[in-house]
TrEMBL record:
Keyword Oxidoreductase: yes
Taxonomic lineage from the root: Bacteria, Pseudomonadati, Pseudomonadota, Betaproteobacteria, Burkholderiales
Protein name from the UniProt record: 2-dehydropantoate 2-reductase
Family indicated by similarity: Belongs to the ketopantoate reductase family.
Pfam (any one): ApbA
Gene3D superfamilies to which the protein is assigned, alphabetical: N-(1-d-carboxylethyl)-l-norvaline Dehydrogenase, domain 2, NAD(P)-binding Rossmann-like Domain
Recorded metabolic or biological pathway in which this protein acts: Cofactor biosynthesis; (R)-pantothenate biosynthesis; (R)-pantoate from 3-methyl-2-oxobutanoate: step 2/2
EC number, UniProt record: 1.1.1.169
Entry annotated with the keyword Electron transport: no
UniProt KW keywords: NADP, Oxidoreductase, Pantothenate biosynthesis
GO biological process: pantothenate biosynthetic process
Matches recorded under NCBIfam families: apbA_panE, PRK08229.1
InterPro entries tied to this protein: 6-PGluconate_DH-like_C_sf, 6PGD_dom2, ApbA, Ketopantoate_reductase, KPA_reductase, KPR_N, NAD(P)-bd_dom_sf
Catalytic activity entry: (R)-pantoate + NADP(+) = 2-dehydropantoate + NADPH + H(+)
């Protein structure tokens, strides 16, 4: 099996790096700004449990385009671009890959697979979910929280899950990946809160006003999911229904009950903060936009998620939890 990671950023370098460190045949396809440090220094992969590996530059397969990566008949694509780049990446894949090539989306959001399939109908688009936070700094990539990757159960993903597990990437094949994606989306509703707060994740989660905004977004999203008949899967120690309740707790109780959730490296931030910081378009449409669309499809509204879309779409804002509550009318 050959892996091509399309989009060598935080997730692509972490997953691709662990596979490469274990001797798998992996090609990382990325932008020059991402490839240059790797070509110079190799890729160092670490995690919060003490794992550390260096894949020397000479052992890394790096490519600027899919054509250079030369996908063959036994290639599996790991799609790791941000949601805003899905369509263009899928068109590149359609042009470069043989029909039936598995394309596993390791992206956040709930509609990337459908968007890949629309642009590349001959390929086999499959869903994945990465639960943890990954930080990329130049040639070093670090997993900052814990969890297991979830891949859509399919004949094409069974051998992939086996290879991932052998490489130390804990991976499961859940029955209902759609429920898992909606469960993850409930957590990703913190991404805009974190991005606007301009705080590291841990600090932001220790701010009750920020948590109250997060909880309000979750409650609204759970309402939209209930109307749509979607039962989100539990992807943390806490059930989806309990999540907003836990978020609203006062600090003294939250810090006791949410110990596992707070096991985050002090410097870790959400992937949406990364985008704001780099001046890139964020994934707000894939997260809050998805809640707004789901509610609308079922005759309801999601004004809080809609407002978050507005706050993330203009000039960069930095808001305290109190200011966010005011901006959302909470
Ligand atoms: N980071 C995290 O902790 C987590 C992220 N996720 C999800 O994983 C997905 C990837 O996120 P993340 O790794 O943070 O994103 P990054 O922005 O770090 O990485 C994506 C990379 O892909 C590049 N890229 C985009 N289009 C192409 C293309 N056509 N060819 C080659 N390279 C391309 C981007 O370059 P450029 O920007 O210059 O176009 C960027 O360097 C997202 O959906 C995110 O929500 C999920 C869990 C945790
Ligand atoms: C892991 C988590 C929930 C928060 O970092 C994430 O998915 C992201 O940053 O996009």
């Amino acid at each position: 099996m050959n892996f091509i990671v399309l989009g060598a950023g935080a997730i692509g370098c972490y997953v691709g790096g662990r596979l490469a460190a274990q001797g798998q045949n992996v090609c990382l396809v990325g932008r020059p700004h991402a490839m240059e440090p790797l070509a110079r220094e190799g890729l160092t992969v670490t995690d919060l449990d003490g794992y550390r590996a260096l894949v020397p530059a000479a052992q890394l397969r790096l490519a600027g385009t899919l054509a250079e990566a030369a996908p063959g008949p036994d290639t599996v694509i790991l799609l790791c671009v941000k949601s805003g780049a899905t369509e263009s990446a899928a068109r590149e894949l359609a042009a470069a890959c043989a029909p039936g090539t598995p394309v596993i989306s390791l992206q956040n959001g709930v509609d990337n697979v459908a968007r890949i399939a629309a642009q590349a109908p001959a390929l086999k688009a499959l869903a994945g979910m990465v639960p943890y936070n990954v930080v990329l700094r130049g040639a070093q990539v670090h997993r900052a929280t814990a969890g297991a990757i979830q891949l859509q159960r399919d004949a094409a993903t069974e051998p992939v899950a086996a290879v991932f597990n052998a490489a130390g990437l804990a991976t499961a094949l859940p029955e209902d990946i759609r429920a898992v994606q909606w469960g993850k989306l409930l957590l990703n509703l913190n991404n805009p809160v974190n991005a606007l707060s301009n705080l590291p994740l841990r600090e932001e989660l220790l701010d009750r006003d920020c948590r109250q905004v997060f909880a309000a977004l979750q409650t609204e999203a759970l309402g939209a999911m209930a109307r749509a008949g979607i039962t989100p899967a539990q992807v943390t120690a806490v059930s989806p229904q309990m999540l907003p309740k836990v978020m609203r707790l006062p600090n003294w109780l939250f810090t006791r009950l949410a110990k596992r959730m707070l096991q985050i490296d002090a410097s870790a931030r959400s992937s949406m903060w990364d985008d704001l910081e780099a001046g890139r378009v964020t994934e707000i449409d894939a997260i809050c936009g998805a809640v707004v669309r789901l509610a609308a499809q079922h005759g309801a509204q999601a004004p809080l998620s809609r407002r978050m879309c507005e706050l993330l779409s203009g000039p960069r804002l930095r808001l305290t939890g109190v200011e966010m509550k005011r901006a959302l009318g909470l």
